[in-house]
Amino acid sequence: MSYLLYYRLPHTSKRLWRDLIPVMYIIVGLGNPGTQYTNTHHNAGFMAVEKLADPNKDWKSEHKALTMKVNIAGEECLLAKPQTYMNLSGEAVQALMTWYKVKVDHLLVFSDDINLDVGRIRCRKDGSHGGQNGLRNIIEHVGDKFPRIRFGVGKCPPKFDLSNWVLAKFSPEDRPKFDEAIAKVPALVECYFKLGIEKCMERYNGK
Q1: Pairing mode of beta strands 25-29, 75-82
Q2: pLDDT single digits (tens) 10-20
Q3: What is the DSSP string of 194-207?
Q4: Which fold does the domain 24-34+41-50+60-204 belong to in CATH?
Q5: Each residue of 160-171: pLDDT tens digit?
Q6: In this structure, what is the dihedral angle of CA atoms 184, 175, 69, 57, given to the nearest 10 degrees?
Q7: DSSP-derived 3-state class of residue 107
Q8: What's the CA gap between 27 and 16, in Å, rounded?
Q9: What are the residue boundaries of the structural domains of the chain, listed by start?
Q10: What does the alpha-carbon distance between residue 187 and residue 161 come to, in Å, rounded to a whole number?
Q11: What Cα–Cα distance (Å) separates residue 115 from each residue in 52, 141, 183?
Q12: Single pTM value for the model
């Protein structure tokens, strides 16, 4: 269908047509479902992927995840927030990849990183899970050959239980630093599509 014909379609028909466009990439934000986990360190991935969401669209529940189709830099993407809880994120990711026939190198994952200072970003082409259980489970299900973007949430303080730390909310001092980092997500993802993950690493790592 030509763009001219597309723009002459009524709104409902446009929406149905867009639903038929094949997804080329899946962008996953890791986190835990439920209001009790909102704005916690472990939900950094959810907050990051939400920066790419279309405010005029609703999230759709499918394959153990909340999803939304968006176009970024000319690429048809599926945003996804697994609803399996962090440790089983791979179940949702594998189900979505199977349903939409997306290869592992067209998967991009956002996660928190307790080894990075708050506000820091680290882009990687592939590799290990680094102790992040959501990434660990995704790797167990689909392998490790996918790029991932980690957002620093700060190291666990001494004598502080790690499980309590990742489920704690950002402090008033840390939240502005984190917000500044995830504000870069739209530009970072556009850089990824246009220039590749290596350029993202050069441009954003450590920033």
Answers
A1: parallel
A2: 555 445 545 66
A3: HH-HHHHHHHHTT-
A4: Rossmann fold (3.40.50)
A5: 888 898 899 999
A6: -120
A7: strand
A8: 22
A9: 24-34+41-50+60-204
A10: 35
A11: 25, 24, 20
A12: 0.89
Environment class of 72 (CB within 10 Å of its CB; exposed 0-12, middle 13-18, buried 19+): middle
Q: Kindly provide the residue ranges of all beta strands, DSSP E only, lying in the chain, ordered along the sequence.
A: 25-29, 60-62, 65-72, 75-82, 107-113, 121-124, 148-152
42 in catalytic set = yes
Number of C-alpha atoms within 13 angstroms, CB side, residue 173?
Answer: 2
Whether the Cβ atoms of residue 119 and residue 178 lie closer than 8 Å to each other: yes
Q: How far apart are CA 156 and CA 165, in angstroms?
A: 6
Out of 41, 42, 63, 106, the active site residue is 42
